[in-house]
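Problem 3 from the worked examples.
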Amino acid sequence: MIGFMGTDIHGFIEVRNSYVDSSEPDDDEPFFRWHPAIPLDHVHNDRSYAAFGCLFGVRGRAFEPLAAQRGFPQDASRAVTRAYERERPDSHSPSWISWSELE
C-alpha cells in the first residue's frame, strides 16, 4: 500500500502601512514596512489542491500558477520570518502573492 502525505499552506496576510508594531521594540525602521495582520489558518483552515496549484504550482497543476517559486520574501516582517524559520525544515516551495495579483 502506498500512502500520500497531505499538503497544507502556512502563511500570513501582511499589510504595509505606518502602523508601529510594538512587538518589535528594537526595530530601527518601524514605519512603512510589512506587519503581520493575520495567519492564513484563521481565514481558511482547509486543503484546496486546486487553489494550491492555481496560486503556487503545488499540487493540482490544471492552471498556470500565478505566483510559483518566488521564494520567501526578503522584506517580510520579523514575526513572519521567525515563523518561517521555525517551519523551514518541514517546508517546501515558499512563495508569496500580492492583493493586486489576486484581484
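Problem 4, a separate protein:
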Amino acid sequence: MSTPTTRSAVDVAQESLRLLLAKDMTGYTALWAEDGVFEVPFAAPGQPSRIQGRAALRAHLSGYTDLLDVREITDVVLHEGADRDRVVMEFQAGGVVVATRRPYRMAYIAVIRTRDGAIESYRDYWSPSAAADVLADVDTSQAAFAPEVTR
C-alpha cells in the first residue's frame, strides 16, 4: 500500500487556517500553485473578484495584517468528498480591525481545489456588506486590497 506524496485539500485547508491565524502571509501564499486562482464571487463593487497567480495574491494580501488582526478561527467544518483534491471549508474568523480597534467576526465558506498539494482554486464566499460594516471607518481598506488584478 502506497502513501500519497502530496497533501490533500483537507491538509492544505487546515494549514491555510493555521498560517492565517499566525499572520504568516508569506507562508499562506506559498500554499498556492504559481498559477492558482483566488475568487470572491460576492466581491463588493470596486474590489477584486478574481486574482490569478501566487505573486498577484501575495501583492493583494501584503497589507492584510495591517488591516485585520485575526485572533481566532472557530467553528471549522471541513466537507470532504471522494476527490482528495477538493474540500469545502466553513469557519468563523474573529479579531480586531487594526486602525479602529473595533472587534469583528465574519463567517466564511471556501471551496478549495488543489493540484499536487498546492491551491489551484480558492473560491471565498463571505458577506461584503458585513465587511463594509466592520471596515466603515477605515480609509485604508480600499488601498490595502486594491492592487492591479483581474476583475
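Solution to problem 4. The chain is about 25% helix and 40% strand. Residues 140-151 have pLDDT under 50 and may be disordered.
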